[in-house]
Amino acid sequence: VQLQASGGGLVQAGGSLRLSCTASGRTVSTYRLGWFRQAPGKERELVARISSDGSTYYAASVKGRFTTSRDNAKNTVYLQMNSLKTEDTAVYFCAAGPQSSYDYWGLGTQVTVSS
After folding, report:
1. How confident is the model at residue 36 (pLDDT cuts 50, 70, 90)?
2. Quick check: 5 and 19 in contact, CB under 8 A?
3. Which of 52, 39, 44, 48 is nearest to 19 (CA)?
C-alpha cells in the first residue's frame, strides 16, 4: 500500500486547510486510517483516526476543530482543519493499518500556520 498526502500549505491563524491522503496498491476500506503530525523538536503525535466502521478519535488539542472522514470508493481519507493555530504547524502524515498498528505511512505534507 502506498499513501500520498496532499493539501498542506501556508495559512494564517484562524484559517482552514483540507488534507487528503489517497491509497494505492490495494483497497484500504477495511483498514484503520490515521493522521499524525510532527513539529520540529517534538515527537510524532496522533491527531485523528477513523476506523473501518466510521468511528473516529481526536486528540484533545484538535477536538472540535479538526474532522476526519473517508471515502472508500476513492480509497481516500481526509482531514478538515478549521480554526488553525500556530501550534498546529507541523508535517502531517497519514497512516493505514489492518489492526491495531499502522503498517503503511505516507511521506507527509507540511502545514504552516502564521500568526
Report:
1. very high
2. yes
3. 48
